[in-house]
Design brief:
Elements (H helix, E strand, L loop, with lengths): L8 E8 L2 E8 L5 H12 L18 H9 L1
Antiparallel strand pairs: 1-2
Length: 71
């Protein structure tokens, strides 16, 4: 999923077959949202895996720039 120029907290969820993937994209440093989500999954006794943090930067594109000019 591509989130050009998005700031704040973005959560993407995908379902494929019997698996659900939840991605947390944050433009700030904190683990409290992920930690809270993990606690909810544990309380619900759901089987889940957590990957390592992946740091990346997504450059803005022309659609993002055009939308800012119009708004």
């Amino acid at each position: 999923m591509y989130s050009s120029g998005t700031t704040g907290l973005v959560i993407n969820m995908l379902s494929v077959g019997e698996n659900i993937t939840v991605d947390f994209l944050l433009s700030f440093e904190t683990e409290k949202y992920i930690s809270a989500f993990i606690e909810i999954l544990k309380a619900a006794e759901l089987d889940f895996k957590v990957s390592e943090q992946i740091e990346f930067r997504t450059p803005g594109d022309t659609i993002c720039i055009q939308a800012q000019v119009v708004a």
